[in-house]
Task: structure prediction
Amino acid sequence: MTSPAKPFNRLLLTGAAGGLGKELRQRLKPFCNTLRLSDIANITPADDNQEEIQLCDLSDKQAVHHLVDGVDAIVHFGGVSVERPFEEILGANICGVFHIYEAARRHGVKRVIFASSNHVIGFHKQTEVLDALSPRRPDSYYGLSKCYGEDTASFYFDRYGIETLTIRIGSSFAEPQNRRMLSTWLSFDDLTQLIARGLYTDAIGHTVVYGASNNTPNWWDNRYAAHLGYQPQDSAEQFREKVEAQPMPPADDPTMVYQGGAFVAAGPFGDN
Ligand code: NAI
Ligand code: 15L
Result:
């Protein structure tokens, strides 16, 4: 995708110290004049006058308001990214996303890219094909927190006109790591294309898009996000032989049955 002009002066990336944040750090620079990087974890400064670093705990409302002051758009990737006890999810993901949208409202930010997850629909079977209107079936406290984030995005558009591209990311890693990821894999380049389309496309309202590369079999139908013009360039197919060399799990293993894979069986925590 070509990027004709930088649509935003200052772009905020949360979760910048994480796996995807490290990948996106360079890839987002063509879309802004200044990239503000944030995380609760330390970020090593680069010798680069396009970046500014502001550490912040997303569960701290005042710190998030300070973080968002002066930015024109937000790429919200920070938070707990796996299944954990509810109390950990609550502060980072639920309070965190609320703080981000409240700060966006107060500071006049009109565009957010929200890293949602396939775990909002994780209890659907791998035999189903879903679109954005399919009922959600969260598979974890983590998936529930992403449902809250999606609904927060919807509310802040309807109530305040803040537009969001919600990306239900499948599995975004350098390579698919197991058979399930032959369907859920999203290359870093295709993820970057989705973010760019979310930043550049006019009038997206609250759009939900499934974040997967051009994989087979494909579990997700992006018809309701057609206005983005997303055209994945990569496919997990190139890794099939390597992945299928792994031992075959039993047919009733969650990774072979459910779209959310092992998350459907994680926890509960703290019963002892
Ligand atoms: P990650 O766990 O590597 O990165 C998340 C970052 O958020 C970490 O650097 C962490 O320090 C930061 N963080 C955690 N709690 C925080 C808090 N209270 N305040 C501020 N920062 C905090 O995860 P990854 O893989 O980079 O994912 C990034 C985003 O994309 C996450 O929101 C995740 O849920 C979402 N996602 C990722 C997928 C993937 O395949 N990598 C799939 C689906 C969703
Ligand atoms: C996610 O939401 C997680 O953040 C990531 O670590 C992977 O587990 C991914 O989903 C997945 O479902 O493969």
